[in-house]
Amino acid sequence: MIDEKFKIFAGSAYPQLAQRICSYLGVGVGGAELGRFSDGEIYFQILENVRGADVFVVQTCADPVDHHLVELLLMIDAFKRASAWRVTAVVPYYAYARQDRKDKPRVPISAKLVADLLETAGASRALTLDLHAPQIQGYFNVPVDHLYASPVLVDYYKQRRLHDVTVVSPDAGGVERARAFAKKLDAPLAIVDKRRVDVDVSEVMHLIGDVRGRPALVIDDIIDTAGTLVKTAEALLKEGATEVFAACTHPVLSGPAVERLCRSPISEVVVTDSLPLSETARKVSKIKVLSVAELLARGIRSIHEETSISELFI
Known about the structure:
Rossmann fold, globular, about 325 residues, five-stranded parallel sheet, alpha/beta
């Protein structure tokens, strides 16, 4: 039974996701006013009493990322100053996760900075989904509940009954994710060895594993410009794959991504609603969206009720 001290508030990045989460939990979205001053600065005011409340702020880092991140920080600060007992930042897509280390001279560790900002604003803990690098959890000095969308995706593909499918990691960094996915589907694993030549440009080098005569399922955490994914699909077909499917948690789909996917040989791209799709992307028949609202709702309930969250990883 959810008590009156349990409250969920939504930022402007994706209020529909917060509403879906609230629907599963049987509560309403908290009352607040979000707006802009004439110079573009963000204005936020809580419209109900949150003193002593267990507050969850749902804000995914959708485009424009910087605006939504600052909005989240201001919201957390407001709840802290309004004497909320605890403030949990629910961030399905964690911004700046792709710069998680110094892999080049004179670059920031952006993922660490974002963690510091959330803590400084007053977040008591964080709930997120499929971090680009799991070690980002260690950048926080407060508890982090890191959920995975794989249960939602695996259930879909089990019902889909793809015969003799091979699960493919599009790069070496995603091997652990793809291996866990392949294990749940009782499928073999293949790895594409690629070399990145620019920030958003990569070249497919060669395939480790066998896809000949079998459908291939490419698993990744993010589809951004879709360049790597399309090149991976083309390489798999050259290696003898009969068909290529793709799945990811976070459909960033920036720049030419939607157009590339439409022109690509990929039969179906399955994504989650961790980020809102553009109107153009919603019209593409090969893009299918699965909801992670129930998964996030169960995570929120476990945090509030102080129960184990590990059953959500199965």
